[in-house]
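Page header: ASSEMBLY MODEL / three components / 1248 residues total.
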Amino acid sequence: MENQITTEITNNLFTINNLWMMIATALVFIMHLGFATLETGLTQSKNTLNILFKNSIIPAIGLLTYAIIGFSLMYPGESFAGGVFGFAGFGIGTDAAGLTSSYNIGYTYWTDFLFQGMFAATAATIVSGAVAERIKLSSFLIFATIFVALAYPITGMWKWGGGFLDTLGFYDFAGSTLVHSVGGWGALTGVLFLGPRAGKFVKGKIHPIPGHSIPLAVIGVFLLWLGWFGFNGGSVLSADPGLVSLVFVTTSLAASAGAIGAMATSWTFLKNPDLTMTLNGILAGLVGITAGADLMSPADAIAIGFIAGVIVVFSVIFFDKVKLDDPVGALSVHLVCGIFGTLAVGIWGEKAGLDQLWHQFIGVISVAAFIVPFTAIIWFILKKSIGLRVSAEEEYSGLDIGEHSMEAYPEFEKVS
Amino acid sequence: MENQITTEITNNLFTINNLWMMIATALVFIMHLGFATLETGLTQSKNTLNILFKNSIIPAIGLLTYAIIGFSLMYPGESFAGGVFGFAGFGIGTDAAGLTSSYNIGYTYWTDFLFQGMFAATAATIVSGAVAERIKLSSFLIFATIFVALAYPITGMWKWGGGFLDTLGFYDFAGSTLVHSVGGWGALTGVLFLGPRAGKFVKGKIHPIPGHSIPLAVIGVFLLWLGWFGFNGGSVLSADPGLVSLVFVTTSLAASAGAIGAMATSWTFLKNPDLTMTLNGILAGLVGITAGADLMSPADAIAIGFIAGVIVVFSVIFFDKVKLDDPVGALSVHLVCGIFGTLAVGIWGEKAGLDQLWHQFIGVISVAAFIVPFTAIIWFILKKSIGLRVSAEEEYSGLDIGEHSMEAYPEFEKVS
Amino acid sequence: MENQITTEITNNLFTINNLWMMIATALVFIMHLGFATLETGLTQSKNTLNILFKNSIIPAIGLLTYAIIGFSLMYPGESFAGGVFGFAGFGIGTDAAGLTSSYNIGYTYWTDFLFQGMFAATAATIVSGAVAERIKLSSFLIFATIFVALAYPITGMWKWGGGFLDTLGFYDFAGSTLVHSVGGWGALTGVLFLGPRAGKFVKGKIHPIPGHSIPLAVIGVFLLWLGWFGFNGGSVLSADPGLVSLVFVTTSLAASAGAIGAMATSWTFLKNPDLTMTLNGILAGLVGITAGADLMSPADAIAIGFIAGVIVVFSVIFFDKVKLDDPVGALSVHLVCGIFGTLAVGIWGEKAGLDQLWHQFIGVISVAAFIVPFTAIIWFILKKSIGLRVSAEEEYSGLDIGEHSMEAYPEFEKVS
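Prediction written out in full:
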């Protein structure tokens, strides 16, 4: 009788934990809509349908490739090659054990797969923003497929799958490095291979190309913040009351401080309370806290978020200065603040210390050392084969007509 | 003491199950916003306010009629007439037992009512898309009220209320037939009675009428996918970890495969990576998996979703060929893929077999045999009394001005 | 052994309750996006970026000030001055007890802080709608900061922090008074100090200034209804199955009846099925049920919602008549229906009675007696120092250019 009671108590806890992980999965899913509307809002209306096409198909590609190969590359179990590569075989599937607490005290095999799969696709979405308004649809789709199927799970395994970075002591709670800077490095090589949009840098001058719909951008940022409750809160991997609620608080305070940091910086240095900077400040705070959201006090979270909000403004200016054209600020938000957030684990919070800072640095460098050449090779092959960039005429008239023969807003008159 | 412990354990499980069902209710609620933005995006801006009016008032009508009559028509308990009709009396209300696990191990009476009520209203929303841009507001509101109050709960009872289709062995997990094809048949009769929009079919040629806002359409599809986690996941009727998480996986993989299926089909046969087809492919996959989301393996779900995505493209082309004008593709998504998904239960998964396929076929036919004449009679009476269709002048200038004396976007210049 | 079992059962329940409270927190968070899109949709496109700036920064200001001062003003514990003021010291922080059920049977300290903090910021958002399209950005930000940091938590403490209104028997389940009319009174004084928008009232005539995007307004109302599941449902402060599900039902039925009430009223008296009135009817029903959502039967909820829906239409007409210019109807929805909902606790439901009605009346008056002069003083000081209102030229050309040097829709041609 006592055994049965204990089993039932354990089962109840398993059901609670699994419920939270499924809801977290749904929240991470909605981040894809957040990315879609954010990228669309910050770009020109002649490329809107094209951007939305990519953002709509990425979750599909992400989940299917993750089912076929990604999940078992990322969590290979025992089948390791020195902690840098492992593979547990094609496809997913489970027996009854995967559906009970014998699999895991936090969630079922199915929940595990779907939660991780939703993460995977976000890495490709980050790239899509940076290369928008000039990349060929077919090239992007091929890149995204390889990137999500191989690059993301291989580096993800290094820490979350028990690989060499995990052994080393590297810490990345929810993916400042494993998700955001992975996406960011892929975005950087993409921007380098593609070159800037026509008209962005003319005769040494920077010409801002404003986004066509600020409401869409704001909808995107709010949905991303909402989704981050699942992204960070779900990374606790259980419904542990103290830990998940702490993560909710640090995540929200970092986002808030990021908004204030970016607003203050843009108002002071650009003499303008700049909304797109403030929105990027929110995202900067979120990316910044992600690596250590479970380790920080509220004051730490505010410090990290605020600094990330300041950094993102100067970073956007910097990339413009060095003529790297990133229409939505993805490099600044995901790469720069992803690195900052990873290092922040060594500076603030429970694990702060020079040793940890060194581990964090090694993690950042290791991931870069793989993703940069890996993605560069893909971009290079695509460029030499089917080509990376649409024609100048297509870029001028818009990728919606050029790639899809349709317009996003066929009824509205444009400013000529 | 032991009894008390067992009671507390049972109560805890009840609280968990009920929590999930309430969250699922909120997710199904947000599908109404998904339908609203999808329909709006795929239609012309001169009818936007009218469409949004209908979509905003439908949940209100749905919940109120479900409280007054629908819930007790759909779940009549013992008061049956041969499994085809039952009624437990007007209104809702409960005593203390309805709020504890003595009512149901999964959820309270209130949760039961609200979850089912949110489903009810979706059936009317499906119709609203197909008849958009030409139907009189008053006629639609009368139709929608009768449809949700009577047609949906009566056929719903046949399976979910323990009626004759349930006895027969018909299976419909979350409503490929009971929700989607019910709405689809009502949409079909509506389209037949209304006729096509002016300008859609001229001298034997099909003139596409593009939607005015692709971002709204994309927002709609993502919100529908999100809501489907509650629609299908909630149909488990408890937070059972293995079953709910399997349903999340099959639902998401079917949606993903539907996107790929529709993209591939449109790219191959229409020579165009068509976004609205791809979006409808996602919905096709979701509708297709709905009848058997708890019975399928991941591979089954991918097969069903992919085929639904292929079907939806050819179905849209077919309805255009036979001059049935459906502005948003509701017939293809909800009726055709609803039937396909229902039959799929006999072809793939745990229940696959010729017997089951026959039961599924009987279910499809039975529902059609009731909904088609029932809705035809309502449309007929409305047509002969207050009229179904707005005047040609009103259709030309738009239903926003005609029915509401307001515009959806009064400030923006239109392409003339 | 038995003790350990009992502890584990209690811990499980704590984990469930805390999970619901965290999800409710996320739902209240998304209300900020609802307010943002609603306000944007109902105003002119030349002020869109400015409105979205305010709505994006308010949650940040709200959470940070709540962390620094608001939370400990609102829940001061023992440190009272006669039930009208208390303060538990600057900052937040907790020891281990705050993370277990020893803090509270419903949730952790962190969850408590974040749920309450999300509420706090909504009060400022209510004001932002009423003063839109003419207020200086800097003045509004200063007002909002003081309002959320001081005014909201001080009056909130009177009831929810165990202050004198609580002792008196005043009841306000989720804040018809403590949130909505607090915001509403601040909005009223703001409207009085600012005066109407140029062109709204000319030579004794009322000139409607239509909103620029009905889809954004509809998105806003649906997100607010969704968020209200957390706002009201979370105010149960646990996942109690019977109570939370009742609150879901009363909340949804009141919203539905509000929609019908406002539709019927506008159709009958204004000869027009007015969508913005219907949307405000939904919100009116939601605000109206908020004070007693846990006390009402379904029939009570329908009555309260319907009456609120009728009231809101006449209230909007009234404020126009008396030349108080409120671009989004915030006074009618939040102030008038907030008061109605508070009084409704004395008229319908479990606590109905003259005594209770009197307590409710005292609560309404007490809050007004503090908020009106408090906010009037802030507005007065701002008016005399940095000024409240933008210049006539800036108002004419729009606050987007005037305050932010950017446009929300730079690519679309405007009707001239």
